[in-house]
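pls read this protein.

:::
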Amino acid sequence: MKYDELLNWMLDRGDPQGGYTVENLKKLLLEFDNPQDKIKTIHVAGTNGKGSVCSYIQNTLTNSNLKCGLFISPYIEDVRETIQIDNNFISKEDFSKYLEIVYEKTKVLDEQGYYVTTFEIFTTVAFLYFLDSKVDVAVIEVGLGGRTDATNTIKKPLATVITSISKDHINILGSTLREIAYQKGGIIKDGGDLFMYPSDKEATDELKRIASLKNAPVHTFSFDEVEIKNVNDSFNEFSFRNFKDIKTSLIGKHQVYNASLALMVIEYIKKYFNIENETIKNSIYEAKNIGRLEIIGRNPLVILDGSHNVESINALVENLSSFKYNKLILGFSVLGDKDFDHILENLIPKADKIVLTEVDNPRAIDLNLLQKKVSKVTTREIFKIPNRREAFLKTIQLANRDDLVLWCGSLYLIKDIRKIALENKKQG
């Protein structure tokens, strides 16, 4: 089979049938003699900040002359960005090779009644690729939740990391922070060190409870330990514990705290690897995470952000103060399974003009319903444009040179808008 055929086969597998479980995937991985048990890993879960924390850690390890794998989701530009080694995407040739191998095994499992999903196939390919490539370590990001996530077939990571926890995917993970933390905390391993973002008490108490049951040492920090020196639209600068004058090019105040969590993990894994402080400092600054408070244009300032739940939207709203602009032109859509009433209440009133569009996802909210909800929290002018290209061009048309065009609400939306924006930029 050709690359495109294999890719379409994998993507067509979709989500689990009848609830999330790792049992079917375990059968597939057993067919390959459990590759996940033969690589060193750092396992990262959480609601917000996973991608950034993974990037900080991976970039530091790569720049420390270690061969470092990275498994992240969802992808923004290219499906192959999900699986990387040393900032290089898996090649189409390698992706095809491993997909073909997995395809043959999956056919047999299908006949036996063990259905393996798209994300489980992604995960299997990543484990096989990292093992065959002889990576020194792989940073593995959880896809959804943690307890029943495909990546939770990992048994003994070097470190378990849980980033900020807030309400998201409430129809799957639960409606309270305790329930969501219970799902995220499912990746905590017996005796394994846990590195934890200082989330709300309800979430942290649940994570500490799980860690206690598993005799897992807990490492965390307080916001007071982070000395913020500068936050602007180009970089952040801060000091944290023994790390002085650290800069991030990932902008937004929340990135200071994400980087602090990553620094804790990096300091710990020095026991396994030779990592210099100067390398850490440079690597934190160089780390990238596209589609997260990403500036893709100026005059007017154009920003894309994948914020899609209450906490990340609140952080986005707070970070708007770092930018100098006259009016805010907002491009927006959201998936229907989000707590979008609270998202709208916090975000929409900040906008001077609003353009609503559709998300290319079966869980997307009905556009008419979204318009109705938005009109309840603002008296500003609202444009409803289903076509995403036309919607993006409308936001640019509405903006003056000193305005800010902001697109947010869904990573699926940002994926499409980013492509449209870059194509528009090329065309001048």
